[in-house]
Structure to design on (282 residues):
């Protein structure tokens, strides 16, 4: 009797632990591969699970971003952890947005869903399979850098933030989300209290005009700009801004089966869906 009770309690505790590690905190404490695996599993149901609504995406996401870029009608944007292409789609569906968006993620199946959704926009939407801790772009490149509902699932959130600031041009806009509520407290080391996050952005990363505004139940939206000023980059083609994953040169040229570095001859293939396999080089 006692033995059965102990076994029952043990199984219950194991079930609770598995739920916390795999469901509630989405695998973040089990490592990068587990996080990617979970997102791959849910990729084709992700939009339904999140209940994205076109009106809300327009009103609460795309329009507020474009209102903060009033003098840049054709920005070059980078969406880190783009997932199923939520942010690129919201921007590209705006008649006033004439720019180009590069979406980057490590879940290949999420990118496949994004590729299908963004196919009508042609080369104005580019998708890359690549990690966020080391972005394959030069300093001061993008007019807009975004990372939504993803920072807490990075293995090193501060390193990811530093990379986003590095590739943002002076005067460019950074848009983030900061997790709040019970789920945030369940992910120590991956989430930040709002006041601490503001100090991190201002004092450690040197950003200015930082504002943390209400947005969703589980998140606040965060705005910041990079100090200084430089002319808008505009929707440059990928070949002019993409560093070779092997040698770091901005010498990538489109070839029949993907992209080849003109400097070191490294080959980066593109999938049948158009996603650039930048996480692997031949």
């Amino acid at each position: 009797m006692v033995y059965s009770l102990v076994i029952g309690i043990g199984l219950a505790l194991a079930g609770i632990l598995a739920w916390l590690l795999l469901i509630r905190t989405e695998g973040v404490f089990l490592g990068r591969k587990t996080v990617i695996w979970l997102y791959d599993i849910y990729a084709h149901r992700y939009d339904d699970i999140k209940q994205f609504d076109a009106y809300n995406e327009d009103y609460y996401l795309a329009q507020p971003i474009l209102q903060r870029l009033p003098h840049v009608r054709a920005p070059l944007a980078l969406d880190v952890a783009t997932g199923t292409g939520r942010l690129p789609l919201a921007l590209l569906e705006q008649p006033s947005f004439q720019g180009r968006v590069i979406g980057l993620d490590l879940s290949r199946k999420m990118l496949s869903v994004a590729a299908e959704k963004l196919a009508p926009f042609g080369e104005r939407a580019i998708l890359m399979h690549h990690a966020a801790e080391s972005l394959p772009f030069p300093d001061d490149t993008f007019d807009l850098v975004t990372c939504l509902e993803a920072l807490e699932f990075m293995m090193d959130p501060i390193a990811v933030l530093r990379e986003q600031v590095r590739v943002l041009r002076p005067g460019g806009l950074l848009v983030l989300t900061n997790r709040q509520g019970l789920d945030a407290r369940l992910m120590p080391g991956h989430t930040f209290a709002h006041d601490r996050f503001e100090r991190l952005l201002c004092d450690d990363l040197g950003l200015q005009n930082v504002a943390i505004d209400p947005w969703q139940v589980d998140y606040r939206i965060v705005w910041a700009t990079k100090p200084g000023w430089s002319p808008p980059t505009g929707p440059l083609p990928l070949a002019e801004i993409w560093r070779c994953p092997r040698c770091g040169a901005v010498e990538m040229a489109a070839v029949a089966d993907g992209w080849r570095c003109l400097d070191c001859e490294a080959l980066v293939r593109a999938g049948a869906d158009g996603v650039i396999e930048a996480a692997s080089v031949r």
Observations:
- The chain has a mean pLDDT of 93.
- The chain is about 35% helix and 20% strand.
- The longest strand covers residues 168-179.
- Residues 1-30 form one domain.
